[in-house]
Amino acid sequence: MVTAGRAIRWTRRLLGTLGVGWVKRSAAPPTARKKWWDRAALVPPYFPRFRPGLKVFDLRRPGGRRRFHLRTNTDGAAVLMVDATDAIHLNPTAALLARLALEKAPVDRAAAVLRGRFRGVGAAKARSAADHVYALIERLTDLTASCPTCGLAEVIVKWSPPFSVPVSAPYKADLALSYGCNNNCPHCYSKDRASSSLAPRPSPLSPSQWREVLRRLAAIGVPHMIFTGGEPTLFDGLPELVRHSTELGLVSGLNTNGRRLSDPAYVELLRAAGLDHVQITLQSYDPAVHDAMSGAAAFDETVRGLKNSLVAGLHAITNTTLTRRNVGQAGQLVEFLHGLGITTFAMNGMIFAGGGRTSGDEISAEALAPVLADVRDRAAELKMRFLWYTPTEYCRLSPVELELGPRRCNAGEYSICIEPNGDVIPCQSYYVPAGNILRDRWRDIWESELFRGFRRRTADPRGAGLPEQCWNCPDLPLCGGGCPLEREHNNQITQSV
Q1: Closest Cα to residue 176, out of 235, 219, 218?
Q2: What does the CA dihedral 104, 110, 111, 116 come to, rounded to 10 degrees?
Q3: What integer pLDDT is reported at residue 153 of this predicted model?
C-alpha cells in the first residue's frame, strides 16, 4: 500500500493508497536456490527485517537538500515523510522497497528480496513492483522539483479522502519551552498560563530534561519539532535544543514574535545549530496597530528580526491573527510582506483560549470569508503562498470552497504539544493534559480517552461530543466539527444568554 499526502505546510494530509497483496514466505531461502541468491548479490541476512521506529535519510546535493523520515510500525507498514511536510503511507511491501531504495540498494537486489519473502512471486512481477517503488523514490529525490509530491498520479493508484488514514503517532510536536513573553498580546491564547505577562518565567524543565523530551519524541517517531511558548527565544538553552534536534535528524522550527531575532548574531547562532524554519508573528504593517495588538513597542524589532532571518537563509514566514483591530488591513499586509521578500505567509482567526476568550475582538467565520478571498487573490497575483490555519465549521466557513485547501483540527492526532513541565496536551491552546512525556508511557498517553476522543470525531461524532447537526453532515470527514475551543466558547455564550 502506498498512500500519499499533500495539504498546507506542517499540516498536509491528502491521503491515498496503492495496494500490493502478497503472502509472506519463510525467513530463509530454500537451499536449492542459494546460487540464485548469490547471483542477485544479496548479502546475508537474506531478508532485511527493519526495526520499528524512525529512520532518517538526509539527501544533500549541490543546490539543494531534502530530508526523508521513514517511520516503520510493528507490522512493517510505514509512513514516509518528505521534509516533514508531505506524508506517503506504505504497506509492508512498499515500505521494504522504499527503505532499500533510499539506502541505494540495487533494484535487482530489491526484487530478489521480494521473491524471497513472498510465495508465488515471479521474477517479472517482483521486478515490476520494485521498479514501481523505485520510480516513486527517484521522483521524490529529484531536488530540481520544487514540489516533490506533485504529479504522483503515475505511481499512486488509488486516492483516499483527506484525514482518512489512521496514524500511530503525531507528525509534529510543539514544545512550549516557557509561557513567559516580552510581549503582552491581549488576545494571546497562553495569557493565563504565564506567571507574569511581561516577565519571562524559566521553564520547569531544564535543558537536559528537554533533550530527553526530544529523544523520546524521536523514539516515538515524531519527525518535526516546533519550539514555541510564550516566547521561546527567552529560553537560554534554545540553541542547544535546536542543535540536539538536528543531531537526532529531526526537522526543527521556531514560532516567535521575532524581537530577539533583531540581533543578527543570535539568528546566526540558531541557523548554525540547524534551525530549519521560523514563523514570526506580525499583526500589521502599521507600527501603531502591531504594537497595540502586541502590548509592547515591538514593531521595529519584529521587522528587523524578519529581515535578519531572510538574510540568514532561513525559511521564514509570518503569521497574523485577524481581529477587529487589523482585519481592514489584511490586503495591504500581503503587499507589505511581498515588499520584504516574504514568499509564504499565514493567517488565523481568534483562538478561544487565554485572552482570546475575553478580548472581544474576534471576527465571525461568516465575516472572514470575503477577507480571506481578497487575501487569497492578492497572494495569487504576487505569486505568494497563503496558508489559512484556523479549523472552522464548513457550514459557516469552508476553506475548500474558498480554494484554501482542506483544513481540520489536528489536535491529539497529527499534532501534540508539550507544556513547560512536560505535560502532553492535544494542541498548544487546549490545556487538558493526557499525561507527562517524562513520567508516563507513550502508549497510555496516545490511547488516553482525551486523545482518542479527538481521533474518533468522524467515526463517532456523537461520542466525541459534536453537536447533532454534525452527525450526518457530508462535510464532517473534512471539517471535523471545527475547533473544539470555539465550540465550547460559543456554547458558554449561548448558556449565559
Answers
A1: 235
A2: 170
A3: 63
Per cent of the chain over pLDDT 90 is 73
Return d(Cα 497, Cα 491) in angstroms, integer.
10
Distance CA(287)–CA(257), nearest Å, equals 14
Q: Tell me how long the chain is.
A: 497
Judged against a pLDDT cut of 70, whether residue 32 lies above it is answered with no
Phi and psi of 368, rounded to 5°? -75, -25
In terms of Cα–Cα distance, which of 57, 66, 56, 249 is closest to 142?
Answer: 66
> What is the per-residue pLDDT across 142-182, written as a single tens digit (0 to 9) for each?
988 878 887 776 666 556 678 888 899 999 999 999 999 99
Q: Please, are residues 145 and 139 in contact by the beta-carbon 8 Å criterion?
A: yes
170: nearest Cα among 443, 436, 413, 7: 413
Question: In 3-state terms, what secondary structure has residue 366?
Answer: helix
Q: Is the dihedral of CA 213, 218, 221, 227 positive or negative?
A: positive
Res 137: pLDDT: 93
How many CA within 13 A on the CB side of residue 133? Answer: 36
Q: In this predicted model, what pLDDT tens digit does every residue of 420-457 receive, in sequence order?
A: 999 999 999 999 999 999 999 999 999 999 999 999 99
Residues 6+ apart with CB under 8 A from 436: 421, 422, 423, 424
**Torsion of Cα atoms, 381 then 387 then 388 then 390, to 10°:** -170
Q: Is the pTM of this model over 0.70?
A: yes
